[in-house]
Recover the amino acids of this structure.
């Protein structure tokens, strides 16, 4: 019904190309156009139109003249006003107008830019004007496949394979490609030049299984283009007329240098053998390996997980002529000459502790006291005094004696086995000094206990020694030690040497080092505890600072909130005043007449009537 | 008729060119070598140096991964099309008051386009690309290949008509020599499909089309499904 009415209207328009202003329709209907387009009039052609669309007014062609323009203009505007809420498109208009589409487009865009059509119409009006301005004109569109205008297709029934290109490359094609090329199995490679970028990857495609060579590949040496992956190589699929010897392994994992990667197992074995044989005479080693240079050999050996061990052992072997003990004897040799009284004391202390541990089941404090005594003369005195205070009164004498025994025993041991590690002892002395007597004692106890657990002999050994010492050197040695630190002691020790049972050196060593380690661990623990406290303190200070910061921020936020509230109140007031103002305006608008399409409450029937 | 001759004399013959703002030659390639077929369409600026052609051919072959023999084929094809175009270049072209209908009827990927509109051969400001852009925008066509295809189709037809106009101009010259001052005859209309502009734009007729002709000039855009595209492709093959 409605459409037929409109059709009739159009027939009228064809007869009467422009609608006179006194048409009854316009007494009832209001159309909104921008104020800047107020020049528009159905009856006249304005100067703006003449200058903007000169083609219609310069008389260049009789197909374009003011009359034609006016017809175009009036038709387009009328067409738009059939339904002003809808955006009118050019494609819709041009089918109804005779004339060059380019000039039609000019008119159309002119009207649109001035808001005579598509003003306030729903849809992307803004976008359109933007486009006209040129802003959105050159949008870059990314195509995810080759354009289909460009095609490489196989002619049906062709016998030849279309391309030998690897599958991996063509996988980047858009999915719709396959649809277009349905008749052939061939998938087109991407048009875009990005394939250039991946050229290298493409080259590393296995010629056999068509998969990418991830870690390395074998290159056919006779021409450089045949490549197979290591998997195919292992499987023995070398391709036609080619053998395994023709292939050269090429590793292209980025981190490995070529010389490292190319060590074969036999070469490595050879290297190890010759290293064992020649030690670090790398010239000889390299000669033995033959295929590798001296530098290669060294770096390879270093890269082996046990490389440094090998080096160490060979070094020892050379200097010690095959002695079994690893690395320690070496040190001993070096330090042997530097022995002084201090180091003796250290040893003494150490041994005395061991002995004490071994024979006495008494409270640990006693033994603790002994340790620092031997460190230096003065200290020892103090410590013994303290010790006496700490230990139960019944024991002081024996305790001192025991301590004395220890010293003597140690001296003896020193004589017996000059290889005892002085350096180790020095270290231990330092450590125990730092840690404190209690800790050292516990560590020593633990060490000896562990040793005893290992086998029962040591315990008895320690005990036996203890007894012998006690018997032989009771008060005399004690006194002499008090008066004369080093020499007298040593002499005593020498005299007692022959009579005492021998504690095996390894045992002593083990006990000593275990004690040292224990003491060190204890000290470390102490340090750790301290550190922990420090950390705690720092953390708490950090937390406090953060808290202060947060509080400050909260204060600021509160302030802000106050400001916001004030503003909100002002806004409410403003809104009220605006509302009343709008009411006034609406009232006036109603008095003046209501726009048809802006007012959604108008019923469609009314339109038909109109 | 009098006014027509007046207009015609006012508008002398012009040198041959594509009647658009940019004088671009539409190039169409369809090359087949050893069972591989390469089809492409694009425009070429005839004032560009010819050395670009081989560069372009090489680049294209590399990008599309064609076998090397295509390079010379492509270059030759472009060159010959350019040469043909240039052979007309210094000749007169008699466009007169000609408005030709341009017909679009083709498929790009999934978009089927059917359209007909008028094109003024004297409008040397026309812009097929802009027209194509508005077209795609109006119909919400998102396929980026449709716009260029429309513009190319317009250019190709315009080029053809322009070449025919050269022949028409030659004919007119002969006519003039033969019977002095003779007007150019309606017979010489290029392709015989130029519209009678007199009739269309005469004082008595409106430029607003009759309703029954609307359908004829209404653009039709169809989106095809995959199956339909396959079927069409099979038929084309």
């Amino acid at each position: 019904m409605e459409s037929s009415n409109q059709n009739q209207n159009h027939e009228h328009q064809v007869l009467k190309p422009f609608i006179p202003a006194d048409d009854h329709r316009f007494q009832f209907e209001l159309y909104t156009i921008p104020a800047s387009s107020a020049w528009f009039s159905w009856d006249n052609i304005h100067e703006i139109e003449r200058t903007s669309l000169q083609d219609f007014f310069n008389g260049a062609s009789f197909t374009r003249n003011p009359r034609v323009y006016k017809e175009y203009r009036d038709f387009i505007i009328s067409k738009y006003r059939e339904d002003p809420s809808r955006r009118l498109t050019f494609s819709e208009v041009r089918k109804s107008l005779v004339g060059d589409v380019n000039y039609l487009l000019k008119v159309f865009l002119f009207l649109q830019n001035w808001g005579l059509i598509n003003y306030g119409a729903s849809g992307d009006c803004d976008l359109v004007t933007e486009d006209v301005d040129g802003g959105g004109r050159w949008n870059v569109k990314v195509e995810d496949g080759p354009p289909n205008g460009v095609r490489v297709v196989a002619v049906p029934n062709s016998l030849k394979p279309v391309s030998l290109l690897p599958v991996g490359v063509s996988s980047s094609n858009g999915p719709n490609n396959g649809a277009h090329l349905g008749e052939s199995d061939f998938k087109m490679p991407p048009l875009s030049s990005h394939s250039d970028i991946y050229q290298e990857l493409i080259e590393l495609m296995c010629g056999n299984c068509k998969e990418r060579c991830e870690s390395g590949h074998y290159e056919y040496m006779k021409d450089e283009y045949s490549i197979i992956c290591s998997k195919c190589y292992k499987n023995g699929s070398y391709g036609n007329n080619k053998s395994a010897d023709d292939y050269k392994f090429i590793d292209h994992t980025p981190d490995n240098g070529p010389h490292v990667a190319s060590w074969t197992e036999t070469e490595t074995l050879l290297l190890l053998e010759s290293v064992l044989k020649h030690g670090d005479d790398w010239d000889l080693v390299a000669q033995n390996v033959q295929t590798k240079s001296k530098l290669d050999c060294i770096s390879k050996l270093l890269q082996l997980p046990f490389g440094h061990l090998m080096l160490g052992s060979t070094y020892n072997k050379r200097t010690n002529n095959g002695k079994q003990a690893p690395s320690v004897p070496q040190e001993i040799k070096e330090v042997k000459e530097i022995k002084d009284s201090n180091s003796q004391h250290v040893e003494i202390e150490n041994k005395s502790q061991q002995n004490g541990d071994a024979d006495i089941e008494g409270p640990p404090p006693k033994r603790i006291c002994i340790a620092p005594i031997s460190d230096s003369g003065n200290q020892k005195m103090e410590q013994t005094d303290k010790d006496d205070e700490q230990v139960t009164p019944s024991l002081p004498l024996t305790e001192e004696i025991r301590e004395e025994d220890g010293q003597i025993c140690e001296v003896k041991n020193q004589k017996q086995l000059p290889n005892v590690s002085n350096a180790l002892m020095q270290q231990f002395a330092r450590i125990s000094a730092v840690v404190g007597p209690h800790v050292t004692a516990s560590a020593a106890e633990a060490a000896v206990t562990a040793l005893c657990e290992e086998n029962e002999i040591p315990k008895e050994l320690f005990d036996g020694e203890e007894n012998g010492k006690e018997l032989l050197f009771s008060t005399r040695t004690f006194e002499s030690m008090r008066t004369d630190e080093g020499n007298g002691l040593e002499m005593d020790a020498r005299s007692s040497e022959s009579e005492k049972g021998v504690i095996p050196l390894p045992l002593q060593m083990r006990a000593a080092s275990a004690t040292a380690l224990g003491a060190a661990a204890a000290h470390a623990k102490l340090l750790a505890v301290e550190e922990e406290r420090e950390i705690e303190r720092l953390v708490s200070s950090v937390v406090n600072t953060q808290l202060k910061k947060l509080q400050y921020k909260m204060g600021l936020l509160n302030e802000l909130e106050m400001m916001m509230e004030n503003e909100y109140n002002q806004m409410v007031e403003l809104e009220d005043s605006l509302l009343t103002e709008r009411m006034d305006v609406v009232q006036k608008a109603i008095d003046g007449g209501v726009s048809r399409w802006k007012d959604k409450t108008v019923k469609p029937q009314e339109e038909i009537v109109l | 008729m009098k006014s027509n001759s007046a207009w015609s004399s006012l508008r002398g013959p012009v040198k041959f060119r594509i009647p658009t703002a940019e004088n671009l030659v539409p190039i169409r390639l369809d090359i087949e070598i050893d069972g591989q077929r390469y089809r492409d369409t694009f425009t070429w600026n005839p004032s560009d140096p010819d050395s670009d052609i081989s560069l372009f051919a090489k680049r294209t072959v590399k990008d599309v991964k064609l076998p090397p023999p295509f390079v010379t084929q492509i270059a030759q094809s472009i060159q010959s099309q350019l040469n043909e175009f240039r052979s007309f270049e210094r000749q007169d072209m008699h466009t007169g008051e000609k408005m030709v209908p341009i017909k679009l009827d083709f498929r790009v990927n999934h978009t089927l386009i059917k359209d007909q509109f008028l094109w003024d051969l004297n409008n040397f400001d026309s812009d097929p690309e802009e027209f194509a852009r508005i077209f795609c925008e109006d119909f919400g066509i998102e396929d980026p290949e449709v716009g260029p295809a429309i513009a190319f189709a317009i250019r190709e037809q315009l080029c053809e008509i322009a070449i025919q106009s050269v022949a028409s101009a030659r004919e007119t010259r002969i006519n003039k020599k033969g019977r002095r001052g003779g007007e150019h005859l309606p017979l010489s209309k290029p392709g015989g499909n130029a519209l009678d502009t007199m009739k269309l734009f005469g004082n008595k007729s409106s430029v607003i089309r009759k309703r029954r002709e609307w359908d004829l000039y209404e653009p039709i855009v169809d989106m095809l499904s995959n199956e339909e595209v396959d079927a069409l492709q099979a038929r084309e093959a």
Remarks:
- Chain B is about 45% helix and 20% strand.
- Chain B touches chain A through 63 residues (CB under 8 Å).
